[in-house]
Amino acid sequence: MAQTISGLHHVTAISGPPQANVDFYVGTLLQRLVKKTVNFDDPGTYHLYYGNQNAEPGSILTFFPFADAGPGRAGPGMSSAVAYAVPKGGLNAWMEALAEVAVDFDGPFERFGEQLIALSDPDGLRIELIETDRAVAQGTSADGTPVDDGFHSVTLWLDTPDRTARLLMDIFGYASAGEASQDGETRYRFIANGRGRGSAIDLITSDAASIGRQGAGSIHHVAFRAQNDDVQMGWQETLRSHGFDVTPQIDRQYFNAIYFREPGGVLFEIATDPPGFATDEPMETLGQELKLPAQHERLRDQLERILPPITIPKGPSR
Length: 318
Ligand code: ZN
Prior knowledge:
8-stranded mixed beta sheet
């Protein structure tokens, strides 16, 4: 196997009005708003990027906030949860901090030998905090809550896991890392070669009947890392040779992207690490100004009038 995937690059979801989204991810989950830009395909809508303090691949959760988005619902063929990795011993501080600000959570539970809690973002997107020895803290907030380094995993809800599992193992180089059934749900874990940030993926099948629907609180796509353009083009060729319908490379300003639909129905992307988020503003002030790609710069005055203003809550000290 020439190349393997090292883990997640980013996850993109849909939200309702942007202020509640910023308040939750920055104010409650202590993520950093690392880019405030627009949906390049629909520039009247924001595209907000959250990440760790250094805005690194494997920590980036992005949202298209639509003020009038109807509620989404997870179901087969969709990613149904995003998990952040909490360093060993950090989950208690998180539970105390969430209780302090009256944010409800479920758990703690144990899953594959790790402790986790689960909560919902303001639009109902399921967020998990999983304590793992693969995580390192990037610091602590004023009250001692560990500031996460990035993702632990995403969960994909599928009708049948087999073909997606084959893609992960035979093409991406993931290894099977466990299977567990509980309450009508079976969960299969896979870990990428390297075991770094965002290296796990869980596939679940469920007896619960649901028909998924894209909308506020649903995940739109899951992106994996490629170290550079050459590696990405290698993936495009490999995936096409396996019969996947892969898009041409698309310039997303902060990375280059290719997209394809995995066999279970989830939209996958492979995104390049370079150039990263400090390509159009300094690392120290990421996310503070509205950044537009060259093709939309002529719309700036108009966009600044129609996009709702956002106040960024105070995040962790950095
Ligand atoms: Zn993407």
